[in-house]
Predict the structure of Bifunctional NAD(P)H-hydrate repair enzyme.
Amino acid sequence: MRGLWTTARVKAAEDRVMARVPAGSLMRRAAFGVATVALEVLAGRRRVGLLVGAGNNGGDALWAGYYLRRRGVSVAAVLLDPPRAHAEGLAAFRRAGGRVVERLVDVDLVIDGIVGLSGRGPLRPAAAEHVAHLDAPVLAVDSPSGVDPDTGAVDGPAVRAAVTVTFGCLKPVHALADCGDVRLVDLGLGAELAGPDLLELEVSDVGAAWPVPGPTDDKYTQGVTGIAAGSATYPGAAVLATGAAVLATSGMVRYAGAAAEHVRSRWPEAICTGSITDAGRVQAWVVGPGLGTGLGAEGVLRAVLEAGVPVCADADAITMLANNPDLWDARDPDTPLVLTPHDREYERLAGKVGDDRVAAARRVAEKFDAVVLLKGHATVVAGPDGRVLVNRARTSWAATAGSGDVLSGLIGALLAAGVDPLLAAGCAARVHVLAAELAADGAPIPASSLLASVPDAIRAVRPLSSP
Ligand SMILES: NC(=O)C1=CN([C@@H]2O[C@H](COP(=O)(O)OP(=O)(O)OC[C@H]3O[C@@H](n4cnc5c(N)ncnc54)[C@H](O)[C@@H]3O)[C@@H](O)[C@H]2O)[C@@H](O)CC1
Ligand SMILES: Nc1ncnc2c1ncn2[C@@H]1O[C@H](COP(=O)(O)OP(=O)(O)O)[C@@H](O)[C@H]1O
Ligand SMILES: [K+]
């Protein structure tokens, strides 16, 4: 797992390290790292432009310009706020033969030192004007300017980076927003940084957590997944959610609901019944996709919440819980619940998501004592214990009708197998993103194609040496 630390924590750690190392040494180390990556990106080309803001981020850029000059690179700098430009950095840059210019022209690479960890809000107009005219790739210092370093939110003009060089540790922006290729320069903060604020699962974490059958397993021992989804109007949601559970793990899937005939004809291996009361025992329920919100659906949701097994509540189940708070009373407080809202469903539960998606997911996780998976290009999974996993998609092909039904089926299968609910939601999100990528391969896909790629996505995360 990769840890991510919020800017307040990073600044505090940097201050403690700075108190015991020579003045300016951290900045020089950071800037040397920027120059090293810049040389790699330049691959022999020799013209660099700097966009230099008023703070230490601009100082890093100027010092990087100094190191690049020493390697014979031609470097020009635009100072966005000349009186506040980093004094030592600017002096070193000029000494090494760096030029201060009004505008960047004919450069092979731009170094964005406009604003870093203290940046808030979009680029100011003068910076935005320079950025709008760039035609060279951009290397962002610490984070792309105009993108909020703590939330990844973009609310106006911002830098689009091909590569970001960051220092000390990763910050939330590096997992929540597009920073291009992210490179980390060690500043020796390690001992000063306690546990991270957010975590990002790596492929190996997902592979290690994904349940596979062992020699002593049979179809019951691996956890039976129950799917309470679909309706006469929306049978497809039942077919997709059941299919995802069938493909995610071995063992057994039970379907209960009005789409039993549709599900049976598509997934003959699922045990299908028309009603939840006839469903038999399961180790986790998925409830909600395509279920409707009428009295019958409420009865199903109540039965699932009372069943005493982990539940993944999605789509109409979230809407019912938002509209009828009495339904919460059916829940066994000791049984894990995973809620998987998109932004509009979130709004029904707890008001607008806002710019800080991590804080939003945390609020609802705490309020309902549940794991909350907030969907989107960057999926945020928050646990009631304060742990947060983030998972950013590299493409947006999953933004297609029915893809959420697939996700809930994956989560349900992992819950039934006994995976920790936060990890279950995080691993499912990761495999879902990968399945979308593999299925799309550059062209739009229906959710059924995403579903068909689930086995390939699981193969891709599993350890190579495993059977
Ligand atoms: N603290 C340290 O030990 C180190 C800091 N380093 C660098 O220092 C940076 C942080 O520097 P600072 O705290 O001086 O602040 P920044 O350089 O991030 O920002 C400078 C100022 O820009 C203004 N600003 C805020 N949002 C803006 C926006 N959207 N558009 C334009 N201007 C805006 C604010 O007045 C802010 O104080 C890090 O990102 C990193 O690049 C590195 O040198 C490594 C060591
Ligand atoms: N822009 C995007 N990039 C990547 N994934 C996305 C994007 N928008 C939505 N998704 C993902 O697609 C799925 C959509 O789920 P949902 O909105 O519930 O759809 P449905 O109800 O039609 O099944 C979620 O997993 C979500 O994270
Ligand atoms: K920057």
User: Anything to note?
Assistant: The longest helix spans residues 421-440.
